[in-house]
Amino acid sequence: MDADNVPAARIVTLLGAVAALDDVRLVAVGHPEALAAVNWPAGAQLTAASGWQRADLLLAAAYRPDNAPLVLVSGDGDFGLLAARHPGPVLVVSEAPSGRLRAAATVIDPVHDGPGRLEQWLTAALAQP
Predict the structure, then answer these.
(1) Does residue 2 lie within any of the structural domains?
(2) Which of 11, 35, 36, 19 is nearest to 95 (CA)?
(3) Domain annotation covers residue 29
(4) Fewer CB within a 10 Å sphere, N or C end of the chain?
(5) pTM (two decimals)
(6) 3 within a domain of the structure (yes/no)
(7) What is the pLDDT of residue 52?
(8) What 3 state SS string does 51-93 have?
């Protein structure tokens, strides 16, 4: 989760949708103020970072390629290649994702689309073999 790139309201809605799931790895990077704007669940990996591209580099380093669903909370096109190459289903949570992300993944804006749409995607993605 790029806490600098996606407003806290969207992050909070996503956290509510994944709260009941087992085996969720949450990684968030951003300016300390952006991280402080969210009440993160226990176990979330939070890294304060500021400066151009620093958060992107830390998030890319935290990525683990596997067949599990990947949820990218960012609109940054720098993650387009990562989304396109991920072997499992990919969701982008953003209000204004880049064209690269739109082409490579399902996009949901939880504030406008509602938490039900997130839950539907998660249920379908987790049901895939």
Answers:
(1) no
(2) 11
(3) yes
(4) C
(5) 0.92
(6) no
(7) 67
(8) CCCHHHHHHHHHCCCCCCCEEECCCCHHHHHHHHHCCCCEEEE
Handedness of CA 54, 83, 69, 114 (dihedral sign): positive
In a domain, 36, yes or no: yes
- What is the 3 state secondary structure string of 33-44? HHHHCCCCCCCC
Q: What is the pLDDT of residues 96-118, one digit of tens each?
A: 899 999 999 999 999 899 889 99
Report the alpha-carbon distance of residue 28 to residue 112 in Å, rounded. 22
- Flag whether pLDDT at 122 surpasses 90: yes
Beta bridge partners of 108: 93
List the domain range (segments joined by +) for residue 74.
Answer: 8-127
Q: How many domains does the chain have?
A: 1
**CA 67 to CA 56: how far, in whole Å?**
22
30, containing H or E segment: strand 27-30
- 40-77 residue pLDDT tens: 999 999 999 987 688 888 999 999 999 999 999 998 88
